[in-house]
Design a protein that fits this description.
The protein is α+β, with helices and mostly antiparallel strands and 200 residues long. It folds into two domains: 2-33; 41-198. The protein is 32% helix and 19% strand. The chain contains five helices and nine strands, in the order αααββαβββββββα. It has helices at 2-6, 10-33, 41-65, 103-106, 194-198; strands at residues 87-89, 95-97, 118-123, 125-127, 133-135, 143-148, 157-162, 167-171, 189-191. A hairpin with a 5-residue loop joins β4 and β5. The radius of gyration is 26 Å and the shape is globular. The chain starts with a helix and ends with a helix. The relative contact order is 0.13.
Length: 200
């Protein structure tokens, strides 16, 4: 080894360094110009199944949440914001642990905090069969949607669930702004499990 190092003269040192730089340059070009593998159908199917499971967990949590008059106003109600299924605030402004869902799920409210390729959004308005916007009454109802971070890459479906417990899916290229009371009439499909979704 020592003998080999002694043979590196000042003349060929530059050739040795230049060769190393050349390899470094090639590696960087490969990194930037060869596309990274995209999520395939098996991964999307896994993400969708997890989103379905999370929505069912939220539904169960909402049912438990409503059993207690948590703001002590004499009326039981669902959580208007699903994060309150993890942690709520009482009428004095004090934080109240609820712990009906995990912290990670509670904070998955945007693309940067997604879980398995999906994030979740509270729905406060729905549309009746006349196309009129109706404010949801938390004493009787709630609704939530699950949206893939990248349509067609992290998931194929947008999900919709409400207090009735039915989960609906719809293929779309962007998150819809309108969530009807009757999803079936607007092209949504009721699904129960992974088998139903794989059949679509």
């Amino acid at each position: 080894m020592v003998f080999w190092l002694k043979r590196i003269t000042a003349g060929n040192m530059f050739t040795f360094i230049g060769f190393g730089f050349y390899l470094f340059l090639i590696a960087n070009l490969l990194f930037y110009f060869i596309p990274s593998p995209q999520p395939g159908v098996p991964e999307m199917s896994y993400n969708e199944n997890r989103a379905l499971g999370n929505l069912k967990s939220i539904h169960q949590a909402q049912e438990v949440f409503r059993e207690t008059d948590r703001d002590q106003n004499g009326k039981n109600a669902y959580a208007s914001f699903y994060i309150h299924l993890w942690q709520a605030v009482d009428d004095t402004g004090e934080v109240v642990p609820v712990n009906l869902i995990s912290r990670n799920l509670a904070f998955a409210m945007g693309p940067s905090r997604e879980i398995n390729g999906y994030y979740f959004k509270d729905i406060h308005f729905r549309f009746d069969d006349q196309g009129r916007e109706v404010l949801l009454d938390p004493e009787k109802e709630w609704a939530l949607t699950a949206v893939p971070v990248q349509m067609g890459l992290t998931g194929r479906f947008i999900f919709l669930i409400d207090q009735k417990g039915g989960v609906y899916v719809k293929m779309a290229y962007e998150a819809p702004d309108i969530f009807p009371y009757d999803p079936i009439s607007s092209g949504w499909v009721l699904v129960k499990d992974k088998i139903d979704m794989d059949a679509l």
